[in-house]
């Protein structure tokens, strides 16, 4: 399974970002291993960030996304792309990944 985690930083010790569409980074994990760090091109700018992020992650063949919060529009965007949503707050990326893998 490929998982994207919205992150405040570029490594596993960073905090899970409390927002999705404007997260600074997405860390991509496959089978528990970090395979890619993506700087979010939608982190700054106008509306539609959630839809852009959903398409970007769909292009990466992501199965699930972890973030601190998902607004109703971004929920719809991820559901349309077939990406599972997992809400986690106050955790590092590493802690969130461990919880997802142990669920």
What distinguishing features does this structure have?
single chain, 103 residues, alpha/beta, Nucleotidyltransferase, domain 5, 5-stranded mixed β-sheet, 3 helices, 5 strands, 30% helix, globular
Describe the structure.
It is built from three helices and five strands; from the N terminus they run βββαβαβα. By secondary structure, the protein is α/β, with parallel strands linked by helices. It has one domain: 2-Layer Sandwich (Nucleotidyltransferase, domain 5). Strands 3-2-1-4-5 form a five-stranded mixed β-sheet, sandwiched between helices. The longest helix is centred in the middle third of the chain and has 11 residues. It is globular.
Distance between the termini: 13 Å
Number of helices: 3
The H/E string reads: EEEHEHEH
Q: What low-confidence regions span 5 or more consecutive residues with pLDDT below 50? A: none
Main beta-sheet strand count, sense and barrel state: 5 strands, mixed
What percentage of amino acids are in beta strands?
25-35%
Structural Rg: 12 Å
Q: Superfamily at the CATH H level? A: Dinitrogenase iron-molybdenum cofactor biosynthesis domain
Helical amount among residues, as a percent range?
Answer: 25-40%
CATH topology annotation: Nucleotidyltransferase, domain 5
User: What's the overall average pLDDT, rounded?
Assistant: 94
Question: Structural class, from helix and strand content?
Answer: alpha/beta
């Amino acid at each position: 399974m490929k998982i994207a985690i919205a992150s405040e930083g570029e490594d596993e010790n960073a905090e899970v970002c409390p927002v999705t569409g404007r997260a600074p980074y997405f860390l991509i994990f496959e089978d528990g291993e970090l395979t890619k760090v993506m700087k979010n091109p939608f982190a700054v700018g106008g509306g539609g960030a959630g839809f852009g992020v959903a398409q970007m992650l769909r292009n990466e063949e992501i199965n699930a996304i972890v973030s601190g919060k998902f607004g109703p529009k971004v929920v719809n965007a991820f559901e349309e792309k077939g990406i599972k949503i997992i809400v986690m707050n106050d955790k590092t990326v590493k802690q969130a990944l461990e919880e997802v893998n142990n669920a």
